[in-house]
Write a structure and sequence with these properties.
It contains 13 helices and 23 strands. It has 509 residues and is an alpha/beta fold. The chain has 2 domains: 278 residues, Aldehyde Dehydrogenase, Chain A, domain 1, CATH 3.40.605; 187 residues, Aldehyde Dehydrogenase, Chain A, domain 2 (3-Layer(aba) Sandwich). The structure holds 2-aminohexanedioic acid. 2-aminohexanedioic acid (UN1) binds next to loops.
Length: 509
């Protein structure tokens, strides 16, 4: 791809990795960005030094006092403009995502669509930051709760959704009256620069000050500064469970708030009554979409013995059709993994599957030759395994789909589905109402997302997104996820000349 096509995003105009909203600076070690699609060097950014970080946080802190005073619907107007600008930049930003991260162009566009959708959602939300009115137990008293801006929000994002996850957090936090500091993955710094350039123009056009939306770049050390920083009220972190545990511990030590969206080990349960055509499409997209690097990717297929052989055959057949190659070429279904480190993790996992007794149905390999020069293209794998294998219990960020057989009642499949440490996304394919309802009941899936007759990935922004157990418990995006970005206050007002105490306590002087 010709990177000049992306000139509207200004990603190559400067190579500073720090921004306080309107201006760019930074002088720390260089981060180079290479495209996994062809191995070519795209550009570099200078990472943020500790002194520069201090400058960013001081500015953010100061500006939050200004921003929290702007009426929420007016803040919403800025997000409306952001959504408008994203509509204009959808193709160019989608291309950059595809080129720098390696997901298919369709999925790159899908990611930008999520950004647009969350902006629309946040604009409406800016007039709906409701609290409840509560009937007081005391005469002449009124009670209600209200939500105030929280302060500075730190956003740590992963490479796999290099723009959308920032937007989920940014759009909500900004309408809620918070200011934001973003630390993107060092694997996709140019996507972050593009987003920051987009929001920066809107801030400039509206004469808004520095410090509303900032970016800092660097490795885990920069993430640690954010997690340790008492001036940051909420740390929203998306990534591996390992990273999330470190962030959670550090933030908890200072009793700060964290919002964690970590690993998944997502399964689709396929019951005897499942529509198999739908099942195969849902499972294949879930397993190979984004080359298996979504946190909602389908990792396990738990299939009833009555339909097991049929599902197995259809899947193997479907995998033969998958075209792997340049993600910007719309004929291809699957692009590369993010880098060679990811490739070696994939190979390592395949080794373990074999060692632990798995039966490989569709072999995995690293592709070589024309078009595959980056060394990041691999083939998607299907392996027959048992759920308790150590490797199956782990999230491997690669296109490896595990096939697991269950017998008897659907409860047995649900138990297998729940027998992992992660709890993000889950699905059941069934036309049996009893099975579907059981799966969604308190005795069913223990995940934050539970679907019927759709796959595990591709959640809409309107629902709260996140999961339980080692997935971290946070909820981002739709529904009432905004509440995490605000502080709640309960107010009681006495409009009488008496002072009755709650709980019926008598206290006279
Ligand atoms: C992620 O993988 O970090 O459900 C987020 C999906 C997307 C979000 C995935 N809406 O696949």
């Amino acid at each position: 791809m010709n990177i000049k096509e992306l000139s509207s995003l200004k990603v190559l105009e400067n190579n500073f990795g720090t921004s306080t909203g309107l201006t760019w600076f930074a002088s720390g070690p260089k981060i180079d960005s290479f495209s996994p699609t062809n191995g070519e060097y795209i550009g570099s950014v200078f990472s943020t030094t500790k002194e520069e970080y201090e400058e960013v946080i001081a500015k953010a802190k100061e500006t939050q006092l200004f921003w929290r005073d702007i009426p929420a619907p007016k803040r919403g107007e800025i997000i409306r403009l952001l959504g408008e600008r994203l509509r204009k930049e959808k193709e160019s930003l989608g291309k950059l995502v595809s080129y720098e991260m390696g997901k298919s162009y369709q999925e790159g566009l899908g990611e930008v669509q999520e950004m647009i959708d969350i902006c629309d959602f946040a604009v409406g939300l800016s007039r709906q930051l409701y609290g409840n009115t509560i009937h007081s137990e005391r005469p002449g008293h009124r009670m209600y709760d209200q939500y105030h801006p929280l302060g500075v929000v730190g956003i740590i994002t992963a490479f796999n959704f290099p723009v959308a996850v920032w937007a989920w957090n940014a759009a909500l936090a900004l309408v809620c009256g918070d200011v934001i500091i973003w630390k993107p993955s060092e694997k996709t710094p140019l996507c972050a620069i593009a987003c920051q350039n987009i929001i920066s123009e809107i801030l400039k056009e509206n004469n808004l000050p520095e410090g509303i939306s900032s970016v800092v770049t660097g490795d885990a050390e920069v993430g640690k500064w954010i997690a340790e920083d008492e001036r940051i009220s909420l740390v929203s972190a998306t990534g591996s469970t390992r990273m999330g545990k470190q962030v959670a511990e550090t933030v908890a030590r200072r009793l700060g708030k964290s919002l964690l969206e970590l690993g998944g080990n997502n399964a689709i349960v396929v019951t005897p009554s499942a529509d198999l055509k739908m099942t195969i499409i849902g499972a294949v997209f879930g397993a190979v979409g984004t080359a298996g690097q979504r946190c909602t990717s389908t990792r396990r297929l738990i299939v009833h013995e009555n339909v097991y052989d049929k599902v197995k055959e259809s899947l193997v057949e479907a995998y033969k059709q998958i075209k792997i190659g340049d993600p910007l070429d719309s004929n291809n279904h699957m692009g590369p993994l993010i880098d060679r480190v990811a490739v070696s993790m994939y190979l390592d996992a395949l080794e373990k599957v074999k060692q632990q007794g798995g039966n490989i149905l569709v072999e995995g390999k690293v592709l070589e030759g024309k078009g595959y020069e980056s060394g990041c293209y691999v083939t998607p794998v299907i392996a027959e395994v048992e759920n308790h294998y150590e490797i199956v219990q782990h999230e491997t960020f690669a296109p490896i789909l595990y096939l697991i057989k269950y017998t008897g009642e659907v409860q047995n499949a649900i138990d297998l589905q729940n027998s992992v440490k992660q709890g993000l996304s889950s699905a059941i394919m069934t036309t049996n109402l009893r099975e579907a309802e059981l799966f969604l009941s308190q005795n069913g899936s223990d995940c934050g997302i539970a679907n019927v007759n759709i796959g595990t990935s591709g959640a809409e922004i309107g629902g709260a997104f996140g999961g339980e157990k080692e997935t971290g418990g946070g909820r981002e995006s739709g529904s009432d996820a905004w509440k995490a970005y605000m502080r709640r206050q309960t107010n009681t007002i006495n409009y009488t000349a008496n002072l009755p105490l709650a709980q019926g306590i008598k206290f006279d002087l």
